[in-house]
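Form 7-S
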Amino acid sequence: MQIWWRLSADPLIDEALRALHEHAATVVELHRPVCLASGRCCQFKNHDHLLAVTGLEAAWTWRNTQRVISIAAATNAQQQGACAYLDGKLCSIHGERPTGCRTYFCDRGDGTWQSTLSESLHQSIRRIHDEREIPYLCAEWTWLVKAFSAADERGVFFKGSLH
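Output:
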C-alpha cells in the first residue's frame, strides 16, 4: 500500500493517469451516454455491479481527493454495497474518480463501447504497473476505500501528505 501511495505522487504516473482520464472523457463525449444523476452507478449492490480498481488508482484517488473517508464511513458504505463517496445522488469526488467510474453509465443504449473502453483503460493501467515494476492488485472499490481509510487512520501515510 505504501508503494502505491508513494508512486501516486510521481509526476509521470499522475500525468499518465490524467491522460487516461482525458481519453475516457473524449470517448464518452463521442458516445454521449445519458446520465440522469441518479446515483445508481454508485450503489453497486442494489444494481448488481462491481467496480474494480487497482491499488495504484485507489492511492491516486485517495491522494488527490479533498474528501477523506473515515473507517466507520467506509465500513458502512461497504456493508451497504455503495460507494463511500456518494453524496445524495452525486459523486463527491467526480474529478478524481477512478477510470471504472468514468466508463460505466446506467444508459440502456449499446454498452459495448463501455466495456471496450473500460478494458482498454485497465490494460493501460496494467502497463504502467508492468513498465514501472509496481506491484499489481485489482480489487473491489469499496474494499480498497476501506483499506485506505484504515491505513490512513493508523498513520501509514505520512502526516500532512494526503493533500
